[in-house]
């Protein structure tokens, strides 16, 4: 199936979870937020939220600095 992750098209396995999608982009374990189709997905739901064909996933990582 095809999903958009941070604006780029990715071919992924059927049933890929939000957690798996996050791991394709970052190894960060904190400071990460995810939205699927403009709806925030809570961290506690990442492992159980499966993506569907044509979903739009945004993964945001907090950056500290000045």
UniProtKB/TrEMBL annotation:
- Coiled-coil positions are none
Q: Which domain of life is it from?
A: Bacteria
Q: Where does the chain cross the membrane?
A: none
What Pfam families does this protein map onto?
ThiS
In Swiss-Prot or TrEMBL terms, this protein is called Sulfur carrier protein
Q: Which organism is it from?
A: Nonomuraea jabiensis
